[in-house]
Specification:
Blueprint (H helix, E strand, L loop, with lengths): L8 E5 L4 H12 L3 E6 L7 H15 L6 E6 L5 H11 L3 E4 L8 H4 L1 H22 L12 E7 L23 H20 L3 E6 L2 E2 L8 H10 L4 E3 L6 E2 L2 E2 H12 L6 E2 L5 E2 L2 E6 L5 E2 H14 L13 E3 L15 H7 L7 H15 L2
Bound molecules: nicotinamide-adenine-dinucleotide.
C-alpha cells in the first residue's frame, strides 16, 4: 500500500539520535508532522543530542512545510508510550530508539532489555491498540518501521548476508535483542494485521554521528595525538553506509507498507517485510582508516604531515565483534528500487568537515 508523508503524523522514536535526527530533518522537508520522542540518555555526549534537537526545532520554525514536536520520554514506560499514541494518533511509526552498541551490552545488559525489548513491546502494543481509536478520519498506524541491525548475522559464514539466511546464533546481547524485535514484529503482524517493516542497518556513519562508533572515536583519539586500536589485526571488513543513504532508504520504505491479504486458511498473511540496508561493498578496516586519516588532514583536524601508521596499534579481536559485514541488497533494490551509493571518501569528507567545524 502506498502512503503519503505530506501531512502524515510520523512518530519517530529516538529522534534526537543520529539516524532519528537525520530522518526527521528529511521528513520536515517532505511536509510531515513529526512527533519525536527520546529519553536523552547519556550513553554518549548529550550535547550532541541537544544540538540535533536545536537544529530540528530551528528548521521547523523556519520555512519548512512540516512541523516538529518533541516529547522527552522513555519507550520502556508503557503509560508514556500509550499517552503519546493517544494524543498524536500517528499514521506511521519509525522505531529507532534503542540502546545501541555491541560492546556496551557486555557490561550494561539491563538497559538493552528495557529499551530494546520492553520498549519495542510497548510500541507494538500501542500500535495494536491504535486501531481501537480508528474512526472516519484516523485509521490507526498504517505502517510500523523499526531498526534492526547487521549484527544479527553474527559470524554468518556465507557472504553477502541475506535476509533469507538463518540467523539464530547471535554473538552479543545487542544482536539478540534486535533479532527478538524481528520475531516480535512478525507475531504482531500476524496476530493483528499490523503492516511492519524491519530494516537491518549496516554500520551507519556521517556528520553529527555517534561518538561511540569507531570512526568517530578514531577521529577523537588521533586529534589528541593518541594511538588507535585496530581490532583483529586489521582483518576486518565493514559494509559502511552513509547516513543520507539510510534516510533515503527509510523514506522509501515508510511509504510502502506491506499489503494486507488473507491466506488460504482465511486468516491474514502477516503484512511483514524485512530488508538489509547497506552499501553492499565491504571495505577493509585499514583502507577505511587510511581514507579517514586523509580526510581529517584535508579538513584541518590533523596536520597535513600526520603519521597515521605511527598512531595505529594492531590488536586481537574483541568479544561480541564479527570479522565481516556485507549486505545483500537485492530485495531492497527489487522492492524499493534503491540501494545506497555514496562512496566512502565522499561520506568521510562530509564527516571530517563537520567534525572540524563542530570541534574547532
Ligand atoms: N548507527 C548504526 O550504525 C546502526 C547500525 C545498526 C542498527 N542501528 C540501530 O538504528 C537505531 C538508531 O541508531 P542511531 O545510530 O541513531 O543511535 P543513537 O544512539 O544515536 O540513537 C538512538 C536514540 O534513542 C534514544 N533512546 C535510547 N533508549 C531510549 C528509550 N528507552 N526511550 C526513548 N529514547 C531512547 C537515545 O537517547 C538516542 O538519542 C537504533 O535502533 C540502532 O540500534 C544503528
Amino acid at each position: 500500500m502506498d502512503l503519503s508523508l505530506e501531512n502524515s503524523v510520523c512518530l519517530i522514536t529516538g529522534a534526537a539520535g543520529f539516524i532519528g535526527y537525520n530522518l526527521s530533518m528529511r521528513l520536515l522537508d517532505m511536509g510531515a508532522i513529526v512527533i519525536g520522542i527520546d529519553n536523552m540518555n547519556d550513553y554518549y555526549d548529550v550535547s550532541l543530542k541537544e544540538e540535533r534537537l536545536r537544529i530540528l526545532e530551528d528548521k521547523a520554525s523556519g520555512e519548512t512545510e512540516g512541523s516538529f514536536t518533541f516529547v522527552k520520554g522513555d519507550i520502556s514506560d508503557k503509560a508514556a508510550v500509550d499517552s503519546i499514541f493517544e494524543e498524536y494518533k500517528p499514521d506511521i511509526v519509525v522505531n529507532l530508539a534503542a540502546q545501541a552498541g555491541v560492546r556496551y551490552s557486555i557490561d550494561h545488559p539491563d538497559v538493552y532489555i528495557a529499551s530494546n525489548i520492553i520498549g519495542f513491546y510497548n510500541i507494538l502494543e500501542a500500535t495494536r491498540h491504535s486501531y481501537d481509536r480508528a474512526d472516519g478520519q484516523y485509521m490507526g498506524v498504517r505502517h510500523l518501521v523499526y531498526a534492526s541491525s547487521s549484527s544479527v548475522y553474527g559470524q554468518n559464514a556465507k557472504i553477502p548476508f541475506s535476509t533469507e539466511d538463518k540467523v539464530d546464533e547471535p554473538v552479543s546481547l545487542y544482536a539478540a535483542t534486535k533479532k527478538s524485535n524481528e520475531l516480535l514484529a512478525h507475531s504482531y503482524s500476524k496476530l493483528y494485521n499490523i503492516p511492519s517493516t524491519g530494516l537491518r542497518f549496516f554500520t551507519v556513519y556521517g556528520p553529527i554521528g555517534r561518538p561511540d562508533m569507531a570512526y568517530f572515536g578514531f577521529a577523537d583519539k588521533l586529534k589528541r595525538g593518541e594511538n588507535i586500536k585496530i581490532f583483529n589485526y586489521g582483518n576486518c571488513q565493514r559494509d559502511f553506509t552513509y547516513v543520507d543513504d539510510i534516510v533515503e532508504g527509510l523514506v522509501r520504505v515508510m511509504v510502502k507498507a506491506p499489503d494486507k491479504h488473507d491466506g488460504e486458511d482465511g486468516l491474514p498473511v502477516p503484512p511483514y517485510a524485512l530488508y538489509n540496508i547497506g552499501g553492499g561493498r565491504p571495505v577493509n578496516l585499514l583502507d577505511f582508516v587510511s581514507i579517514l586519516g586523509e580526510e581529517l588532514m584535508g579538513a584541518g583536524v590533523l596536520p597535513t604531515d600526520f603519521d597515521m601508521e605511527a598512531h595505529m596499534e594492531l590488536v586481537p579481536m574483541q568479544r561480541g565483534d564479527v570479522p565481516v559485514t556485507y549486505a545483500d541488497t537485492e530485495a531492497l533494490e527489487r522492492d524499493m528500487d534503491y540501494r545506497p551509493s555514496t562512496d566512502l571518501r565522499t561520506g568521510l569528507r562530509a564527516f571530517a568537515r563537520w567534525y572540524a567545524s563542530f570541534y574547532k
